Amino acid sequence: MSHRWFETVAEAERRARRILPRSVYKALVAGSERGLTLHDNLAAFAQLGFAPHVAGLAPDRSLQTTVMGQTLAMPVLISPTGVQAVHPDAEVAVARAAAARGITMGLSGFATKPVEEVVAAGAPTFFQTYWIGSREEILARVQRARDAGATGLIATLDWSFSHGRDWGSPFIPNAIDLEAVRKLGLDVALHPVWLARYVAAGFLPELTTPNMVARGAAAPKFFEAYGQWMQTPPPTWDDVAWLRREWGGPFMLKGVTRIDDARRAVQAGVTAISVSNHGGNNLDGTPATIRLVSGIAEAVGGEIEVVLDGGVRRGGDVVKALALGARAVMIGRASLWGLAEGGQAGVENALDVLRSGIDSALLGLGRASVHELSRGDVLIPEGFERVLGSSEVVAR
Q1: pLDDT band at residue 395, thresholds of 50, 70 and 90?
Q2: Which pairs count as long-range contacts for 115-119, CB under 8 Å and 24+ apart, including other chains?
Q3: Percent helix / strand / coil, the chain, rounded to 5
């Protein structure tokens, strides 16, 4: 099925909503509890304005930057998102799109495709791990990623198992069994495009997690891995420093929202931090990341790289984040809507939309490079920004 070009990420989402079974779509748009953080991630960007020029604009503009040693054609990375059951090519299609557009792929430990296949797709890959199981089990997963050729490691800590949703959580099966067919059969039948893609590929979605084990071991089901995660004691800062040392290469800590945690991350020796609230799926009531990034970047941006994750849907959003101190942004849902709409071509389309928007904003602001952006380029309402945590670090 040929891909039809879309001009905005919002249009990609509208198309994805028509294509995907309701349960799959709801799993992607969901946020925890009331969805306060989820909605703030999006709404906060709309509260920021621009201060454009009208003459003396830069005829040529550079979008290039680097993150964790990787050169990016634009300041956008693919955020690791698990269980990409929106298209049979899943993470491999996303990696191919990232390679085609010159950016880096973040691969979730809960991905549906093995790390070896994703790395082989050509994009520099940052492998994401959660703190699940023993140190030995974590090292086995990390070593597998290293052997596959991953160029960086992302340790994701922004998750508190606050998964209750006021509007109800969609049914997610552990396997395609009679119960799943009974509960989801009609929903799937009403979305024939999604089903036809899997039929053509010769398989149905399997909620397995091949990257949660050493290579060659049997992949656990999603909820088996999730259950182990819930039962694993959360990591300490010593654990973070240990994992960084064991990896020995570029290392990102994802989930930072407080200045004191950012400073502890610096002490742990990380390369970069992602200011993230897990797309609104962590502790509900956490402020939007765009409200937090400036204070964190001001505190530690001279020592480590700061990227923003959460609510980015437009190139203008990327520019706003950079103007407030981020080095780059990470996108999750934006790439998934493109994947659902058209596989690899749909992800490339979404990335092209963002690139065009970044370039247009740079033109209007009179900036020749993303590195020239500053607070003076955006209008920040009084009381917009939030500062969480003290600048002083207290051991705990």
Answers
A1: very low
A2: 115/144, 115/145, 115/148, 115/150, 115/210, 115/211, 116/148, 116/215, 117/92, 118/91, 118/92, 119/95, 119/148, 119/149, 119/150
A3: 45, 15, 40
DSSP bridge pairs for 251: 153
Say what the pLDDT of residue 210 is: 94
Q: Model confidence over 132-163: pLDDT tens digits?
A: 999 999 999 999 999 999 999 999 998 877 76
Contact status, residue 348 vs residue 101, Cβ threshold 8 Å: yes
Q: Which single residue is written with the structure tokens 């962590």?
A: 282
Residue 39 among the catalytic residues: no
**Cα angle 118-116-255, degrees, rounded to a multiple of 5:** 60
Give the active site residue among 39, 191, 278, 371: 278
C-alpha distance across the termini of the chain, in Å: 55
396 pLDDT tier (thresholds 50, 70, 90):
very low
pLDDT in tens, 7-49: 999 999 999 999 999 989 998 998 999 999 999 999 999 999 9
- Bridge partners for 71 per DSSP: 66
d(CA 393, CA 47): 31
Helix intervals (H) in the chain: 9-19, 22-29, 36-46, 90-100, 115-120, 135-148, 178-189, 192-201, 222-231, 237-247, 259-268, 289-300, 315-323, 333-365
How does pLDDT run across 193-230, given as a tens digit for each residue? 999 999 999 998 878 999 999 898 999 998 898 889 99
Rounded Cα distance between 323 and 370, Å, is 9
Can you tell me the distance from the alpha carbon of 35 to that of 284, in angstroms, rounded to the nearest whole number?
A: 7
Helix orientation angle between 22-29 and 178-189, rounded to the nearest 10 degrees: 90
> What's the residue count for the chain?
396
Model pLDDT, residue 179: 82
DSSP 8-class letter at 279: G
The structure tokens listed for 291 are 């409200």
Tell me how far apart the alpha carbons of residues 268 and 86 are, in angstroms, rounded to a whole number: 36
Q: Residue 393 pLDDT more than 60?
A: no
The 10s digit of each residue's pLDDT in 90-111 is: 999 999 999 999 999 999 999 9
307 membership: H or E segment, kind and range: strand 305-309
